[in-house]
Amino acid sequence: MSESTAVRALSDIVPGSDNRRSRYVHRSAHKDGAARLELVTSPPGEPDSRVPANPPVPLPPPETAIQRLALYAFEAIEGTRSISQLAGTVTPEVVRELQARRSLRVERRTLIHDQRRIVALPGPAHTSRPHPEIVEAAVVLHARGRTSVVALRLERNAERWRATELTVL
Hints:
By secondary structure, this protein is α+β, with helices and mostly antiparallel strands.
């Protein structure tokens, strides 16, 4: 396959572009006629330092993972699930908040002698992405006789999503 290449300064192509950081357009034409354009920070004849045009946007966590996290947080506050099971998916601040809410809930249930176990079923997760590395979601949990809502904010750091804010209403 023969390939022809051409490298031109971006300021030659786009009038008014910034000359302080020279950028070049690297154009490759393949034998089959397909063309590929890439931004290059080095002029012709120097080692290539190609800049990706668009950095990859991380995929949001699947809806089922958001629903499970909401359900597990609800169960942790109700006392049917250990908070330590959420440790890998929530920040330490969220763990402290869940522990405080759980202790209040347990104290309330003790005072009124309520021994019922509440089983909730999650509804669909309603999500929005204010930033490529942030997902905000709300999940409605349906239980017999009552409905609860879990609002959460997930942020991506390193290679995983973690809940930085989580509220059970």
